[in-house]
Amino acid sequence: MIPQDHPRYRSLMVREHLARCAAEGILSLEGLTAHGRGEAFDYLIGERTMESALLAEKTAAALLILARRPVISVNGNTAALAAGSIALLQNASNAAVEVNLFHRTEERVRKITALLEDHGVQVLKGEAERLLPLTHDRALCLPGGIGSADVVLVPLEDGDRCQALVNMGKTVIAIDLNPLSRTAMTATLTIVDEVTRALPRMGRFCRDLTKEEIQVLATGYDNRELLRSAIREIRSRLDHALD
Ligand code: ATP
Ligand code: MG
User: Fold this and answer.
1) Does residue 63's CB lie within 6 angstroms of at least one atom of ligand 1?
2) What are the pLDDT digits (tens) for 229-240?
3) Separation between Cα atoms, residue 77 and residue 216, nearest integer Å
4) Closest Cα to atom 29, ligand 1: which residue?
5) pLDDT in tens, 165-182
6) Residue 152: domain span
7) Does the beta carbon of 159 sit less than 6 angstroms from any atom of ligand 1?
8) 239, exposed or middle or buried, with CB in 10 Å at 0-12, 13-18, 19+?
9) Contact 227, 178 (CB under 8 A)
10) Does the model's pTM come out above 0.90?
11) What CATH number does residue 123 fall under?
């Protein structure tokens, strides 16, 4: 039992939940270590949404609304942490949802699909094909999903797949707590925030932004500048950590 007054209560509960998801075969063991890297960056960020991330989340909502074929690519970590928020964002943005896994087995795809569907997500199905120029199984995707998407949202992405999607001419929106990862650097738009904070807010922005705001946001962003602002915000917090 984790005591509710433990100062790290939420974090410990999430870890317990993820460990259970790993035992059930939804999360890979490697996914647990990826979560640890994310937690470390979130500690530096202060476990809150930075100003730069808020702007990135608004901009991401605008890009999803304007997309012709938006797709949310879901892996084990995202499904385990945020299945309900994926359902909300799907409803608000009309995006398709496709399961894409680094450690891919048909059984894991089935389990993650079932978890998402239990939370009300409509999951694309079909015969995945090797449509990305990558040697590992993240190359596998659906021709009617990620294969033909113009905008792809990739929470917790791997750097080389992000690059491959960008090279195919797609607009790639990444959610990654590490502003220095290859994913963060290569995505078209990077949200430096925790996935469970980012997704619900993006859903709300999809509903609330006006047509004018959407146009301004979608045409006026500069990802390098957003990343620079994120790093500046982290640095300034560290500068004052011992004040
Ligand atoms: P890259 O391949 O892009 O250089 P990486 O190899 O450092 O990244 P991966 O293991 O490929 O990282 O993916 C995990 C990434 O997801 C890490 O950068 C980590 O910070 C981030 N991450 C983990 N958990 C979360 C979370 N809950 N919310 C947001 N980001 C997260
Ligand atoms: Mg990686």
Assistant:
1) no
2) 999 999 999 999
3) 32
4) 194
5) 999 999 999 999 999 999
6) 51-238
7) yes
8) exposed
9) no
10) yes
11) 3.40.50.12640
